[in-house]
Amino acid sequence: MADPMRIRAQVQGDKAVVRVLMSHEMETGQRKDSAGKTIPAWFIQEVGVNHNGRAVLTAQWGPSIAKNPFLQLTVKGAKAGDKITVTWKDNRGDSRTDEATVA
Q1: How far apart are alpha carbons 18 and 101 in whole angstroms?
Q2: Could you give phi then psi for residue 79, rounded to 5 degrees?
Q3: d(CA 40, CA 92)
Q4: pTM to 2 decimals?
Q5: pLDDT (tens digit per residue) in 65-87
Q6: Which of 50, 56, 86, 93 is deepest in the core (most CB within 10 A)?
Q7: Are strands 44-51 and 83-90 parallel, antiparallel or unpaired?
Q8: How many domains does the chain have?
Q9: Is residue 1 part of a domain?
Q10: How far apart are CA 31 and CA 85, in angstroms?
């Protein structure tokens, strides 16, 4: 299982700014190792963000996303104490879900 995501959600007026740092190696499938063999692709394919159980973002990613990707979004109507849940799934079937409380 991957390392936990670092999620920070802070209220700014009538919305919250959510920042997420995901820990993932993200291989494109185009690099070669020292023996000249292609390193298999391994990347996050699906990302979802929920605010109090309601989907506010769904995304499909590909191999061109950077290692340990950073995601930032604004959630309208979020207030202190609300729950933000972030989930990702990669092309090997691994997944991770983490939750933060809006501050």
Answers
A1: 10
A2: -135, 170
A3: 10
A4: 0.92
A5: 999 999 999 999 999 999 999 99
A6: 86
A7: antiparallel
A8: 1
A9: no
A10: 33
Give domain status of residue 66, yes or no: yes
The answer to whether position 13 is within a domain reads yes
Three-class SS state of 63? coil
Q: Would you say 23 and 40 are in contact if contact means Cβ atoms under 8 Å apart? A: no
User: Could you tell me the two tokens for 18?
Assistant: 């959510």
Please tell me what DSSP assigns to residue 27: B
Cα-based angle 56, 97, 69 (whole degrees, multiple of 5) = 75
Three-state DSSP class for 93?
coil
> 15: pLDDT confidence band, cut at 50, 70 and 90?
very high
Structure-token match 């920042």, residue found? 19
Q: Look up the CATH number of the domain holding residue 65.
A: 2.60.40.10
For residue 94, give its domain range.
6-101
Burial of 53 (0-12, 13-18, 19+ CB in 10 A): exposed
> Would you say residue 50 lies in a domain?
yes
Which pairing describes strands 95-101 and 83-90: parallel, antiparallel, or unpaired?
Answer: antiparallel
